[in-house]
Structure formats: structure tokens, C-alpha cells
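USER: Please consider what follows.
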Amino acid sequence: MDNVTGFISVFMSAVSNCRLYSIDHESVVGLIEKVFLVHNENCDKSGNVEMMIIDNDLVVNSIPFKDIGLQGKNLIKLLRRKGISHINFLKGVPRSELKHLVACLAASKQEIKSSPHIKVGIVDVYLGELQRERGLDIEKSLAQFTPEQIKKASEEYDRISPFKKLRLAGFEEMVMHFVLTLKKEFDIVKLLEPSRSYYGYDYTHASNVSVLTIFQAQALGIQEELQHEIGIAALFHDIGKILVPREILEKEASPDSRERKIMELHPLYGAQYLATLDGITRLAPIVAFEHHLRYDGQGYPKPRVSAIKQHLCSQITAIADSFDNLRKTVSSKKALNIKDMLVTMRTGDPGLFNPFLVDNFIRSIHLSLSR
């Protein structure tokens, strides 16, 4: 086993053991010491180890590591949830910095910042080009996505196809941006893209639903690690529409009964598509399948198990989906103002939403607008 492989293997073990025990547990202390010793054996000529996450691959010193096992896959998920896709271990890194990094990675709510010998950041992969950003304040960088980056994410979203591998990396960072921005911005409406009429699979609607779902998760006190998974699931809630004929999606007139039946298959198509993807949260196919199921179970598609109940994440995604749809101008109708939208959601159909969740959403919107 070469030095680079040994370094990554021991580092992953240190993080995993720290999550199970504590940073001062003897097994963790011993593993950090091994990380320190292996790194000091000069993993490359400069003595640096550069770790990056590109799509679902761990790339170390420009070499992709395919066989990283369960620990490696867990490390990739953990780094993504922290908003990190690039770590550079510089020559001469001391034990104290390694210990601090392992402790921060193992703690679910601990913010991670660069230190003198360990630089953390993100890797921009939206254009298919690799642009490394070194020594970044992760929260600051993700909360300041440029219009160009958002445009690239939108274009990538529009290229989603059942015949191509979905690249999750850019979307993971977009959702992390949503999570971090919502922690700072109280007016949720300011964060939503302008409403517009649409009949297809649309990035604007999907990103708005993701933001609104994370907004609800934060108001409910759901931990940040799960907020990220909920946001990803909400972002792809309508992905099954890629398998619905375009002429049905773009038809301006009301669909006939045959077209409606085809359209109502998109949750099933979405769940089947997402279930085949590696590295995506297990919530994604659940939310895709259930977001039209309704709280009373009378929606679609009809599950084989009649007693199935909507998952909590599907329930809050359904609320977000409905709110954003009400913001759009449909046919000749004028879009409702926010007050009317909230009244419609609360009184329009008593079986559509979880009463507690829709009340929480309305209360949170009012609180957001009053600040």
C-alpha cells in the first residue's frame, strides 16, 4: 500500500472512529498519530496531499480512487454535507491541526475553516472544467454563488436525461448554498426566483421548492445534516417528468383523461430513476414518489400498500410545491398575493396537507415577512 493510499485510509478511519467515540478516545488518538506519521513520509514530492471530490469519486493528488469502500463513501457524503469538496494538507501539518479537522468533521454542527497547513474549499465543476478554490471560508463562498454559477446549474439541470448519468456534485453545492443562506436571510420570499408560467421540468420551480422545503425544515428544528438531504430530495421531486412526453407537458389546454393518466405517472417514473443513482440520499425516491400522494392518501400514484402514509419530507415538499405553484400566473388568472395564497393553502382542501405542517409553514412565512 503506497503512502497516499495509506494516508487516505487512516484518515477515513480516524474520522469514522471519532464519530463513534470521541476525539480523545485512545483509538482516535492513535489513528491521528498514524495520519501524522504517514503524511510526514512525503506522500508526493512536495509533501502535500490534495483531496478532491469530483462527482462520486475521491481524487487524491490527481489520481481517482475507485475502491474506497464504505468508509470512503461515508467520508464523501460527510464532506458534501459540510460543503467541502477540496482539502489540501500542506507539508509540515502539525498533529493539532489534524486533530481539529477530524473533530470538526465528526461533529454534525461544527463549522470547518482552513488552518495554516490545511486548506479547505470547494471545487467548481459546473462547466466540466476543474477550478480549485484554495483556503476558502466555506460558508462565505457558498453563500455568494454568482449568477453565472446559478446559470450553469440551471443548464445542467435542463440536460438531465434518463440516458445520461446525473452529476450530483454541482447540485449538492447548490443545496448547501440554500441551507447556509437561509440561516442568514430572514425574508424567504427574497430568496425565491421570480415566478413564471411553465409546463415542463423547470429548474426555477425545482430550486424554489428546495429552498422552501429547507426553510420549513429549519423552522421545525431539523438538524442541518438532514436539511441538506431534504433539500436534495426536494430539488429532484419532479424529475420523473423527463419521461413524460413533451407535448403533454407543454400543452396549454387542460389535459384529457388519457393525458392526465400519463402525467400522473411522473412520481413513479421519478422514484424509479432516482433509485438507480449511487450517492443520492434515500429520501429522494421517496419524495419523488409521494409528493402528490396527499396527507389523506387520496392522491396519486396509488401505492400497492393501501395503508401507506406520506413521509414527513414528502409532506413538507408537497407544501413547498403548492406554494410555488400558487405564485405562478396560470392561463389568464392573476397570481395570488402571499396572504391569499396562505389562506388558500389552509382552507382550500382539508385533506391535502398535514394541518400541523401547513400551520407551521404559514406561521413561519408571516414571521419571515415581519422581520
